[in-house]
Amino acid sequence: MHNPVFMKDFSLSFPHKICFEDFSTTILFGDRIGIIGRNGSGKSSLLRMIVERNPDISTALVSQIIDDFDSLSGGEKFNKALSNALSKNPSMLLLDEPTNHLDLHNRRSLMRMLQSYYGTLIMVTHDKELLRNCIDILWHADAEKITIFRGNHDNYISEIQHRRQSILREMDLLDRERKFMHKKLMKEQEHISKSEVSGRKKVETRKWMKSVGDLKATKAEKSQGKKLTAIDGKKQELSEQLAQIRLPEIILPKFHLTHREIGEKTILSIVDGAVGYSMDKMILENINLSLTSRERLAVVGNNGSGKTTILRAILRDENIITRGDWTMPNPQNIGYLDQHYRNLDPEKSAIEIIFEIVPTWLHAEVRRHLNDFLFRKNEEVNMAVRNLSGGERLRLSLAKIAANPPSLLILDEITNNIDSETLDHVTEILREYPAAMVVVSHDKDFLKKTKTEKYYKIGEVRY
């Protein structure tokens, strides 16, 4: 067990942005907390802050990107790191996107383990199933603050939707009232205009003092004007409230992935293939698959089954041994995006990376291209990749691929590390991408939405 953890005025900011300010709360033993929000909102940093500022508590943090155990797959690395963390019998377990690299079997096993975990659980995740079944307190990092909600993800989204609809209804009523008041003011002014004509005649005949007519007009206009001003002020207040209620699923960014003109031909063919790291120990054998220039293929299997090894063989990785008849595009015509974004130099900035791909572009062209992928501020385009969030690295990887469009796009678990908004828009982009794709993913919904209907299954796996 551990004593209550008092968090007071936690803040996180960088030179180009504020993530959150003045966050205060108390963590009790046994709390089950889920941290949600957009990429780059400071969620992973918040986990580290909790650990660093509470050295007297037995904690275990399993990070989002695990660099140890290089010979293992992403899912195997996570399971190994989690086992090491749990062996310390921590009273507080902190997990950063735990389901990112897990197949369906391992996701279910993790969920059962978390449901039975005795201590305090704090978890950064976009996994709605985890949020629904393993969490009863939500911290939402958004709009430079962290909002606390007691309940699971479904309760939270329902509450936000209710508040949003309530504000929209109130704004609609204000719009109607303003239109009514405006019409009333127009009628008053028309009436006043007629009265002024009559008043001038009465003034001329000395039956009515001039000041009386002026007073009537001024009083009516001021009364209606105050009411309109009050309505506009209330509407502005509601607009500000609405701006703060942003559902994670709302798609805000707009960026595109361009492509070359492609024909109808077979661009990938493997007949009686085998892959491995030595001739006497092949990982997979009897590989038979083909892909035309407009098809998309999902390679599915359990963690450690060899999915990424096949991708590396297609990319002609020198460390992979192959047998059989392999027909593949030139590596220069393949766009590759892996789950750790290794196609990005961590020391280079976004603008340097794009200039390397298209050195003939003008500076303004590069900025426009990056702008399409939401890199708009000078600080963002000049920041080193190592300081970017997972979602920002994905957008930059797509920008790099789009700058020199490939005939074959290979995606290795790209739904990891990204928030719901980024995932939805990436899905939209890939759904419209006309060239060939090979996709490794455990996300059935993602495969369906990107129209990936052709499957190559490794081992006993049900999708």
Properties at a glance:
single chain, 24% strand, 13 helices, five-stranded parallel β-sheet, alpha/beta, six-stranded mixed β-sheet, 42% helix, 463 residues, globular
Task: Give a verbal description of the structure.
It is a single chain. The chain has 463 residues and is of the alpha/beta class. The chain contains 13 helices and 16 strands. It has helices at 43-52, 74-86, 104-116, 128-134, 153-204, 210-244, 307-314, 350-357, 363-372, 378-382, 390-403, 420-432, 444-449; strands spanning 5-14, 17-27, 32-37, 59-62, 92-96, 120-124, 137-142, 145-150, 266-278, 281-292, 296-301, 321-327, 334-337, 408-412, 436-440, 454-458. It is globular and about 110 Å long. The protein starts with a strand and ends in a 5-residue tail after the last strand.
Q: Given the C-alpha coordinates, what overall shape results?
A: globular
Count the strands?
16
Number of helices: 13
Approximate strand percentage:
15-25%
Helical fraction equals 40-55%
Main beta sheet, described? 6 strands, mixed
* Pattern of helices and strands: EEEHEHEHEHEEHHEEEHEEHHHHEHEHE
- List the uncertain runs: 247-256
Q: In angstroms, what is the radius of gyration? A: 30 Å
| Gap between N and C termini | 40 Å
Structural class, by secondary structure, is alpha/beta
